Here is the input.
Amino acid sequence: MSAIELVVEGKAVEPADGWTFAWVDRAAGVARLSDGSRSISCLVEGAGSEWFVTINGRRILVGARTWRERMLAKAESAAAGHGGPVDVKATLPGLVVAVGVEEGDDVAEGAPLLTIEAMKMQNEVRAPRAGRVVVVAVGAGQAVAAGATLLRIE
Amino acid sequence: MATSRSDGDPSLRKDGGATRPSKEIFSRLLVANRGEIAIRVIRACRELGIESIAVYSDADADAPHVRMADRAERIGPPAAADSYLSTDALLAAARRAGADAVHPGYGFLSENAAFARAVEAAGLTFVGPPPATLEALGDKLAARRSVAEAGVPIVPGLLVPLVAGPGGVAEADLAEVGFPALLKAAAGGGGRGMRRVERREEIGPALEGAAREALAAFGSGTLYLEQLVAPARHVEVQLLGDLHGGLAVLGERECSVQRRHQKLVEESPSPAVTPRIRGRLTDSARRVAGTVAFDSAATVEFLLDAAGNHYFLEMNTRLQVEHGVTELVTGVDLVAWQIRVAAGERLPDAVLRAAPRGHAIEARIYAEDPHRSFAPVAGSVTTWNMPSGPGVRVDAGVTADAPLPSEYDPLLAKLMVHAADRPAAIARLRRALDETRVGGVQTTLSFLRWLVDEPSFVNGAYDTDLVADRWRGGPPLTDLERSLAAAAARGARRDAGAPQLPRTDAASSGGSRWAAEARREAVGRRRPG
Here is the structure.
């Protein structure tokens, strides 16, 4: 029984039974898991309650929170509530090819907002939460830098 | 399998396997590119005794290719249009550095006729074909016509541009092609402006989207329509020519492992190419080369259908990303010879008659998430452990702990292996992938590790739909993978120091680690839910 709750893809996971963990090269994040007969190399990066474990080239996000951290997070999200404005930003530089919403539109969480072409890909930008679009800062045909504010939802 | 195109003076071919370059070779070569391919060209220059000049945008000031070159010239801000795609900036850099030749690498300006012409007008040598050849081949539609006239099979479809507009598309044209069909950009390449059209009714919107993409990427929205050949394999033939009529045909590469019509894995020889098919591909590649003035490295791309029929797709007169696969099986240094033939050297017999040996595979490591439709990822590479050992070659251009420049191609490294036969090459690739560790960002490594155990890849019976049909979004995490990841995270977190306790608790428990741990466990056990 561990006091640290481990979460992968939103679900609590029990750590593999009987496998021991040891660093191989701690500075590089290289570690080894072993059950006595088998041994698996992995890359472990992170700190505190958020870790990335790379096994066979796949980077797996693992939440590792103590009971206290879970309680704190719950309290914080309850206090934050709803309603604060959220700026939707471009994660990559690219070209805005279509804007699907106008100022004043009500959007649901996950609703498509606009399309940005970056690195040969058309990427749909979706609403991070439900709310009203109060500012549309870009138009179709406009080039945007990484981190540029695209629109604001309140 | 290589002979001369001209049957002229036989003494021309008697210069044997001379490996030392002639005296007239360039003294200073400007590498008009970045990343791993710039490093590849710089390495060739060093071996040939040529001074190398790197160029860099502000995003690349501390990039590995800059550190590796003999000298470096700044060419502008991060945006490629203002730096690596700026003819003016590149020529100014070449003038400042006193370069006498320019190697364009791949991508960027490598197939840009206007750039090649400007380089020559400035009195420098362009390491590549004559500008007129780039022009002729840059128009894919015109190339289709001239290649068909030379007796090479082409994909059935239109030989004239498809025009969208008030009149719409001629029904007769569409009926002639049939559906499903593939919409392509006449000025295109690299999968841009390409659309699969399933039904007649989809042609309108597909035309619009493809034309927009093609216009943005190539400055021309001209499109044409081909029948969709499916299932199909993508097989290409490597050519190397000189200014004296010498032409080496250096075997084929199988490039069917693709996403978004872009290659991920290449191998040579192709598991689908029998000696009979190879003979026909070689003959067609020679005919294609004969349609243009050509004296450099080039690749002729073909589709191969399930019955073993081949169809010409296009000819690329530049170095390909996957050139290393051919170098491993033939032992011919394509980049060095590209530079030497540009300086006027003849290809020796050792190159003209190079016979492929063994099997080579290249696996491309991109900063892309294969579990999210191969979307490019932003971030920095942290840990960077590349494999080594027998038969392993890595061409990379990565700076650890610096943000990946999002302006450019997300290719991090090319991992290549060479072994006696295909099963041994796959085993070697699997071993090399297990030695490879890239931290900080998700890469295509998870896809590649899956691929080497995927039955259709292992038995060689795959086509260009492999990623779409077999990988899809990738297998879900297994319970073992989840629990191992959890065990690793717990181990790392515990090792990073005991989790912080509420201060009041720590004070009352007397500060003993053991007591604190016991209390923490107790608190954890009492937690609700």
